[in-house]
Amino acid sequence: MSDAQVAAALLAQQLINGLTIGLVYALIALGYTMVYGVIQLINFAHGEVFMLGAYLALTAVWLLTAWLGAPPAILLLCGMFALSVVGCALTGRLIERVAYRPLRGSPKLTALITSIGVSFFLQNAVMLLYGSREQSVPEVLPMVSWEVGGVSVSGMQLLILAVSAAMMVGLDRFVRRTRTGKAMRACAENTEAASLMGISPDAVIRNTFMLGSGLAAVGGMLFAMNYGSVSFHDGYLAGLKAFTAAVFGGIGSIPGAMIGGILLGVFEGLAAGYLSSEWKDVFAFGLLVCVLIFRPSGILGENLPEKV
Amino acid sequence: MLEVRHVHTRYGKVDCLKGVGLSVGAGEIVALLGANGAGKTTVLKTLSGLVRPSAGEVLFEGRRIDGVSPEEVVRRGVAHVPEGRKVFQKLTVLENLELGAYLRRDGAGVRGDLEHVFALFPVLKQRLRQRAGTLSGGEQQMLAIGRALMSRPKVLLLDEPSLGLAPIVVSSIFRMIREINREGRTILLVEQNARMALSVAKRAYVLELGEIVLSGEAEAVRDSPEVQSAYLGGG
Fold first, then answer.
1. What is A3-137+158-294's CATH topology?
2. Is the ipTM, as predicted for this complex, more than 0.85?
3. Following CA atoms B10, B13, B18, B22 in sequence, which dihedral angle do they give, to the nearest 10 degrees?
4. pTM for the full predicted model
5. Could you tell me the CATH number of the domain that includes residue B6?
6. Best to test chain B binding among A176, A189, A197 (most B CBs inside 10 Å)
7. Which of the residues A7, A64, A73, A101 has an alpha carbon 20 to 30 A from that of B85?
8. What is the residue-wise DSSP string for A103-124?
9. Closest residue in A to B147 (Cα–Cα)
10. Which residues of B touch A186 (CB under 8 A)?
């Protein structure tokens, strides 16, 4: 291979690696952005829901292997998906009911601080339940990878790509076409007008939390499989990254969160490949600072003036 | 059909309504007139459940609806077209109309009512797939009224339908209000444009600083010296 080919292969490799992690960020970022869309709250506990999703996926593997010995991969995958999505959706619903609903109508800062409290609570709860040491995740998929022109793509990366794409297309359809999805969009635009249509804002907020938490759970499951281990700390950094992605894409915008997540992942991948992987977080949060200074509304965010 | 008794409403420490009483009979158009800040919008918000009165009661078909959630008020048959139209700008015209029928489960009936709204406001049919935010002010007002009709309400509460619209548009909107009333819907109309409101209303109330100061048949209200000088620019 010539130097140019090697350079091109390196670039392609970093883009693929970046896309993979970016899709996971995007899945988490959707929850931040949707919740912000309906109640203008940055739910800092959202990263912990992602982490819980990773642990629940691991729990599903434990339960299924204890019960069936060596179940087929597809059964394991379905079990992980079901337990983490359902568990996180219910957790999201519970968080909203217990921590945020009583604060509806109080200053924004109160709810924001509460979300940090919920975040600590969940971290510690998981630590007490599962122990403070990192847990290794058994291999669910056989380790396969393909090499094309000096670029390697793993089966895990293809799974992340396929599952995330399916989730995002599904979400888009849901929000556009279903009655509940339309109610969510109406509520995000004008809660009072939505309630005059007979839409219950409480129900919409509840659905939004469940949906966002379910998506974060899918991200958590993919994350656990990809890295092979989970720790109760994992939600913190991933949550901050996903928050950055949501702001980058334009907080409140669903396509914005998808694009922001993917771009952030690619940006990090490039920084890791060409500079140093130890500096990738610096670049990610440097990006957040730049967005906040130069374009606070993000890529797709709308800066509409208040209408009279 | 709709009865408001001694309603007091306050925002924080400010008394907005101080014992308002009014009634709307089945099939009537009743106008509620008053200057900016008189409390007209608060009366409508109290009726539709957006605001809870601190005292007094609101009855609809003999049952109390004060303190009931806005969703429940819609379910019972009261639709509120808010001030400033408040159509969902980012949603299409069709989606706005569908949301008007949010609580209904009778698909065939909803489709029929959709055709009916198109018959009243043909322009909406041409704009069906457009975002509501791209419509003109008059078209948005038509959409807001059409959206409210999609819940098949018994009573329609209209808040300043003429606000910010050109006179020719205002007269066509008022023609539609009369048409909707002829179909058997009861209407409570809040307006600053007293001349237009009194031309369609059967009866009228005048609200000043949270109190009803005058009420009666529309002609009588129009001819009263207070209304002539304060709202109609006469002497």
1. ABC transporter involved in vitamin B12 uptake, BtuC (1.10.3470)
2. yes
3. -10
4. 0.92
5. 3.40.50.300
6. A197
7. A101
8. GTTS-HHHHHHHHHHHHHHHHH
9. A197
10. 88, 91, 99
